[in-house]
Amino acid sequence: AILPAMPPDLSTICVEFGLDAADVERAGRIQEAYIAQEAHEAVLAQGSAQSERECARMAECWRDATHGQQLKLYHGTSWEAAEQIRRDGRLRVSTDGCLGRGVYVARRDKALRFAQASGRHGGDAGGLVEVVVSFSYPKFVAGDDDEWQMQGYDACRTASTSLSDSMEWCIQDPSQLAVVGIEKVALQSAAGEESLAPVLRLPRGGAAAPA
């Protein structure tokens, strides 16, 4: 069996998912040895059923730990686009990112920088969209990757890309993101100012209300 892709920055993933650091690091070491063709052939040649069982057990633990997880993340855009997202209740798919087609989200600080950069979205004000992301089978990489969906994953997290040193996620389908609220922010030229409007929360009924 092929083990799921493990994150290159395990300590950060442990914080994000609330995983036990020792178990995840151990799973990573086992996976690295297992997926290497030479090591795999060696295991089979030795007939080590214990090694095979251990690999399968750790793979199952990893899937259980990440299956059905939800993370609170953010999407930076223009205020106009953020308002449209609030009205529609969903984010649009991007096709030109370093992780291929999907919906791009990140931690608040990175999304805020994007929202404040008028040159990135062309708006008169920035919009910060807070979302809750759900996924069942995430892939973790360090760098660009546009093949994860063809490999059966429904989300991809990268520690950095060729265009950014910051972490970001790409989510396969907009239905995996629930919009929690939007916030209007000043552009970079006035980034030191306070937000230009209150945060808007979306209750279960769908109508926006101030937090």
Automatic annotation (TrEMBL):
Q: Would you name any one GO CC term? A: cytoplasm
From which domain of life does this come?
Answer: Eukaryota
Q: Which SUPFAM superfamilies match?
A: ADP-ribosylation
The family database entries (Gene3D superfamilies) matched by this protein are listed as: Diphtheria Toxin, domain 1
Q: What is this protein called?
A: PARP
The taxonomy runs: Eukaryota, Haptista, Haptophyta, Prymnesiophyceae, Coccolithales
